[in-house]
Amino acid sequence: MILSLTLFMAVSCKDSFFDINENPNLPTDESVTPQLLMPMVLNATAKKMAIDYDFAAFWSGYWARGSSFGPSHPLENYDINSSYQVSHWVNGNTNDVNPAISWYDILMDTKTMENKGRESGELFYVGVAKVIKSIGYMYLVDMYNNVPYSQALDLQSYIAPAYDKGQDIYNDLLVQLDSARMIFADGNLEVSTVAGNADIMFGGDLTMWRKLVNTQALKLLVHQSEVLGGVPTAHLDHIATDGSGFIMAGESAEVQPGYGANEYQLNPVYGTYIADHNGSLIDDFNRASNWMLDRYRDNNDIRYQYVFHKAVAPVDGIEYQGNDFGQENEQNVSSSSESRVAGPGIVSGPTDPLWLFTSVESLFLQAEATQRGWLTGVSAESAYRAAVRESFNWLGVPNAESVADTYMANEDIANWAANSNKIELIINQKHLALPNVNNFEAWVDYRRLGYPSDVPLSIDASVENRKIPLRLSYPQNEYNYNAANVEAEGTINPQTSRIFWDID
Amino acid sequence: MLGILLIGSAYAQDRRISGRVTAEVDGEPLSGVSVVVTGTTTGTATDESGVYSIVVPSGSQTLTFSFLGYTPQTVTVGSSNSINIALTLNASELTEVVVTALGIERQKKELGYAASTVSNRELTSANAVNVANGLQGKVSGLNVTTTSSGVFEDTKINLRGIRSMTGNNNPLLVIDGIPLDIRYLSSLNPNDIDDISVLKGSSSAAIYGPDARNGVILVTTKRGSEAPVITLGHSTQFQEVSFFPKLQKQFGQGYDGIVDPVENWSWGPAYDGSTVDIGPELPDGSQQTVTYSGTDERENVYVTGATFQTDASVSVKDFFLSLQDAKIKGIVPDDVNRRTGVRLNAGRDIGIVRAGLNVNYSQQNYNIFDQLGMEDYYAAQNIGGNDGLFNQLINTPAHVPLSKYKDYKNDPFSQYDYYYNNYGLNPYFSIGNWRKNGKRQDLITNLELSVKPLDWLGFTYRAGLVSQGITERRTSEGYTVSEFGINRGKTSVPGAVEERSYMRTRLSSELFGNVNKELSEDFRINGVLGTYVRQVDWRDTEVGAGTLVVPEIYNINNRLGNLTGSSPGYRTRLFSVYASAGLSFRGWANIEVTGRNDWTSVLAIGNNSYFYPGVSGALVLSDAIPALNSSSVISYLKLRGAWNKTGNADINPYLLAATFSQPDYTGFPFGNNSGLTAGNTAYDPNLKPEFINSTEAGLDISFFNNRVNLEATYFYQENTDQIISINLSDATGYGRSYLNAASFNNKGFELDLNLSPLVRFTDGAVRFRANATYNDSEVTSIFAEQELNQLSIGGYTTAGNFAVVGQPAFIIRATDYLRDDLGRIIVSPTSGRPSANSTLSDFGRTMPKWILGLNPSVEWKGFNLSALLEHKGGHFASFFAMGNDMAWTGVSAATAYNDREPFILPNSVVPNPAIDPAVIAADPTNSEYYIENTDARIGANEPIYAHYTGEFRRAASNFITSANTWRLRELALSYEFPQAWLQRQNVLKGLTVSLVGRNLFLWVPSENEFMDPDFNSMVEDYPNAFGNINATSNPPVRNYGFTVNARF
Fold first, then answer.
1. B22/A170 Cα distance (integer angstroms)
2. pLDDT given at position B97
3. Residue A216: which CATH number?
4. What is the pLDDT of residue A405?
5. Among chain A residues, CA nearest to B373
6. Which chain B residues touch A96 with a CB distance below 8 Å?
7. Cα(A293)–Cα(B977) distance, integer angstroms
8. Which one of A369, B171, B323, B792 is separated from B591 by 20 to 30 angstroms, measured CA to CA?
9. How far apart are CA A27 and CA A24, in angstroms?
């Protein structure tokens, strides 16, 4: 009797009885389409570039620690170790309120979007993916030089991916941009309404995508200015042939997913440096540096009032007060008497769109390329003047162009004729244009060219003879989980190990 | 006529004699012992507590005590009215019965695997509120760790080491035949338990399925008694903090020689007893001042906890009803939990049919500090190192009068805006602001129908329903900060509410037949054939409002902004067919074979069916060999052995495909814009079950009429195709992956020694029990396809648990200082400071190699004094997070090294200046390039805290110590009132009072300046990342109190 009952049950318990393992809570690969990924990819990329490079703002002379805090190492003594700034490679703890998302995480979603776009024949997504890929890996190379690239993001084949040379990665990123350009320039490319809506940056405007491709390609070339050994004619020809040009004044690439005053939905710059969704002020750590404030004020440059914020509780009526980078603890002084770092020219409210590539940076890249003889059409001086004007414009300075012109006419720090080293002038002005706009690019330029030559070193007592770091250490996770490959890169010393484009 | 005569003589010279009968072997009371006036039919039987009372007619001189399996004793009645006796086991009739799989009672001597029984009396001797704590130290091979000391007393139970690297290593709990998650053990009333059998190997997995691979804890609840018994009990116990990290009390608040009254750093000047400011000057001009000297205030925030527990039960034939009410007040101020439970066990025989129903319902109502709420606040402020209440307390400067800040609503110096510290919170504010209020309800019922058509054949059907419901509300009262607070950098705390509803049900249905038939005088067979099917469903719904419009109106409708939340649901199914067959020859040679096939829903069709066999045997040599049978030295000798293979896929459902989601922190969805991101964990759609090959052999031996008993077991387990969750390089696009990827073995032996009695004296005896477990393991392969030889199991990046081929599972790998090849620390010749090495070093195993339990007891007349000592050793623990924080703030004893004067780091070297730095850089660990450091002193040219807040924290080796412990687990003194005292009335039949203490002392090696290494609060995130201790849980406590039990 038992036996027959058992058999009966076994038979009745066919596969269908056990076929209940489809995830009812979260979508899996088959139900995900590329338009569901694209807003995340674009928003995460812009957000990461805008708020995850505070350390570069300190090292580039922009910021100093607020007086409510004690010394912060290794930020202030440059003694970089494998636990510092790992979130570019490794996701932050997702239990944290606002965890940093790593480039590899963003690039994984990007790759998934690319694959799905290719599967469904929607090449628009493939093109977008290639642009984001060229940005993400550029950042990784600019921080770590050699990183996993050809074996990355392919778990089925490589559970422990090997590292590629930084130069090889750069070379391939330019190839990726070439194919993105071809995709966008193809007259038969269809951008569906759905895809256009999911494109929270350009709304499916292919011309704007081509401009971004060209500008990003120019950026990759400019980063290599010291190692190219000549004019990169072939690449410049691709850009010229495309004919769309670069991102120009007023054309900043900006994402707007629908920022609002809800938790996690604030404009990320606003939500990181100004206030939270309840309107409570946040960020007592990041403050203007005295050196930077003086660099504006000493040269009659009003931009300090746009780049930085008035102190919440000024002492003795001093509204714009900075700190020295690396200064000792100071008693009875609070961060609230010092200038916050996201001034009204940077972000005006929680619903502002967020830039991914600003017109200001694009114009400075063009100015440098023109001065180097890579671009023609306008004079280097005109290109330079356009860039400085756009900085004043972008920050919302009233009568921006005339104020900028006066500044360039009267101040040695900005006057074309007064500076014999035009590259140094361009980079020094680029540096003045980018605080909290692109802190990372200022660190790249400093390592690449050594400008501004007077960026102050930290005055921290334990800085010893260390200088501004040349790179980051590989994250501890790699030493733990990808040990053989990271150890093949040898001993990394952020004081002496260089990125390939940094030759001295 | 005779009756009248007896009564008549009773009035004349009869005497009432009473007393208690116990088993000499373990001191346990024996119930049902026949007590007869020798040579007459006048008799009685002992009750549940072994107590009897009998009228002895005049002229009768002796009483005879007899009980199956024990040697009868005849005792002369003297002048005393009380006779207590201990019966000795009759070796040749040794028939200790063990409840085994499916609730079938088996003679222990027939079993081929190790099984231990813990009686109710042993379990409740020190009145642990939690059954798991009652088991601690009483059974070899059992490792019970208390992982926190809140009002729930979380415990983790492990039998014989581990069999899964990253999965579940919990033994299965079976209550009255219904398999359950081990967590239900804490919902049981310890007084309802009749006994607990611990089946240590995986042999019972054939019957109980894959969950039993880690052993089974088989609980039998009380079923009722022949004679009506009513019990009432009360216990009051107090808890106080028993262990605190070593903190320095030499230096106060500040840095660089300055006392900074708003700092959280203790890097200020040495304490000098002067009067100093603390906190800012308030807007009204008032200023708080204190004496600048170290105090114990950090320990004074915790209060004395208390547990008041009352039990009542009624027991009659086939009926048992119990009630329990426990009110628990925690050591964190205002933490309370009240547990109320009821159990009804009823059954009835109707001819050959027996029907029974057991119902256990318990409700816990708690209101506790919501630590998570506080942690979220700190995370939002980007202030690290303040993740728990305990952490917050220990990192406070030693002169701060913490316990004066209780009135955080009215006392200015205690208010949020005006609190002394610019960064941290008043702990009383945290406790008052963030609360978790909840109700947990557990219902465990089982219905049993059995029919026994023949005396050798029976069928049983069991249906089980287990459900757990939690409704919980987390709230934040909220605080609006003043202008003064804003200027200090303080921000408003939003009022918030989050509601949680969790419901889990498990339905099971089981049908089996069993046969137990004597074939001939020599041979007996037994067998079981059965099927089991179960379905588990759960759903966890959370919905929250992060900012309330009007504070303290806790309705999610009263909010600003979006709702947050999720409501995932799960369902799994398992179906099994199993069988066992045993053959016994003359009772002393036994063999049993088992087999089981499982089908599970959590693996893909095609991988989801697996079979596993087993065999076990036992030989009672003392019965088989006549020479032994008559030996006066060896009274019992049994050899046993078992081999089996078990398969399992102990994973959650939906772990075969990677998922996409819109995590809250990404902000998506923004209106109509969705934004998915791939999950961080990769999955293998072709996961297979993992298998364990397990072999054990053992010996049970008794000497000198069973006064010395020894049980020894050797075990060896090979674990293959382990399903593990491993950490990956993020360059793969994922952070973790589930794979069948590792193999390891686990081996050791267990010893149980029972000396009962060790010494006997008039009216008393000394008894001694001891158990010892030695456990070792070795990882044999890890993801062979990719030639990995190590993988990370969990923990911190700088100090975590790793599985490394050739090493035990698991070891701590952590950062250390950079050293030369002689192990000397390389320091900078200018600053004298070392640096941390990115490549990790090994620091030893995280699971204890030895566990010892020693249980001496003395009884004299009605007194019983017993102690339980426990040792765990041979392993290491990492206190990285805690030590790291204490070094940052400068509160740990280590930071006061050398009175904070500049010092040369012991065992340090500097590069030889005569050697070209480039040569050294090429071979940086070559000891020939270094010379002893004789003058580079840490702190000579810079503040000394630069070292402690820098590389000292980065080198996790500074926070790794031996995890050895000795602890006095239990000390109990009980007194049972003599029957003679109770004879004058008929209501009260028994009365016991006891004084009990638990976890009274903990001894750790002096190098452990941190914490109880068992307090492992990271196990929730990484179930097998043992030995990672942080400060998010409360410190350990000792319990002491009294218990009164009365029987009517």
1. 85
2. 63
3. 1.25.40.390
4. 97
5. A97
6. 379, 665
7. 86
8. B171
9. 8
Question: For residues B645 and B694, what is the distance between their CA atoms, to the nearest angstrom?
Answer: 6
Closest C-alpha to A500, from A199, A163, A133 = A163
- φ/ψ region of A158 (left if φ > 0, alpha if ψ in -120 to 50, else beta) reads beta
Alpha-carbon gap, residue A177 to A195, rounded angstroms: 20
Mean pLDDT of B994-1006: 90
Give A110's DSSP letter. H
Per the CB < 8 A criterion, the answer to whether B206 and B527 are in contact is: no
The sheet that has B115-119: what strands, in order across it?
B115-119, B193-199, B216-221, B172-175, B178-180
* Residue B871 near residue B1004, CB atoms below 8 Å: no
The answer to the question of residue A432 being in a domain is: no
Contacting residues of A for B813, CB less than 8 Å apart: 480
Interchain proximity A480–B489, CB inside 8 Å:
no
Q: Which helix (H) or strand (E) holds B970?
A: strand B965-976
The Cα A346–Cα A368 span in angstroms is 24
pLDDT at B50 over 90: no
CA nearest to A162 within chain B: B731
Tell me whether residues A148 and B379 touch, CB distance under 8 A. Answer: no
**Does residue A363 form part of some domain?**
no
B601: contact with A, CB 8 A cutoff: yes
Query: What interhelical angle do A380-394 and A422-433 show, nearest 10?
Result: 10
Using pLDDT thresholds of 50, 70 and 90, give the confidence band for residue B94. very low
> Within a domain: residue A66?
yes
Q: Which residues of A6-22 are buried (b: 16+ CB within 10 A; e: fewer)?
A: beebeeebeeeebebbe
Q: Which residues of A touch B950 (CB under 8 A)?
A: 73-74, 77, 79, 462
Domain membership of residue A228 as a residue range: 42-244+464-487
Judging contacts by C-beta atoms under 8 Å, the chain A residues touching residue B459 are: 1-2
Task: Count chain A–chain B contacts defined by CB atoms under 8 A.
Answer: 328
Tell how far CA A341 is from the center of its chain.
17
pLDDT of B639-686, one tens digit each? 999 998 988 887 889 989 989 999 988 999 998 888 999 999 999 899
Taking CA atoms, what residue in A is nearest to B571? A20
Residues of A within 8 A of B561 (CB-CB) are: 261-263, 277
Length of chain A: 504
Q: Which of residues 225-264 of B touch A (CB under 8 A)?
A: 255-256, 258, 260, 263
Nearest CA in chain A to B256: A329
B-chain residue closest to A45, CA distance: B666
* Contact assessment for residue B300 and residue B273, using Cβ atoms and an 8 Å cutoff: no
- Are the beta carbons of A159 and B839 separated by less than 8 Å? no
Residue A173: count other Cβ atoms within 10 Å of its Cβ: 23
CB atoms within 10 A of CB B906: 8
Q: Is there a contact between B564 and A263 if contact means CB atoms under 8 Å apart?
A: yes
Are B575 and A13 a contacting pair at CB < 8 A? yes
CA–CA dist B803, B789 (Å, integer) = 8
Which of A15, A21, A286 is the mutation pick for testing B, counting most B CBs within 10 A?
A21
Q: Please give the backbone phi and psi of residue B950, each rounded to the nearest 5 degrees, phi first.
A: -105, -110
Q: Measured between CA atoms, how close is A166 to chain B, in angstroms?
A: 15
- Stretch B572-586: mean pLDDT, rounded? 92
Chain A residue numbers with beta carbons less than 8 Å from the beta carbon of B794 are none
Tally of domains in chain A: 1
| Alpha-carbon gap, residue A255 to B488, rounded angstroms | 35
Whether B1 shows a pLDDT value over 60: the answer reads no
Asked whether residue A50 is domain-assigned, the answer is yes
Chain A contacts in chain B segment 87-146 (CB below 8 A): none
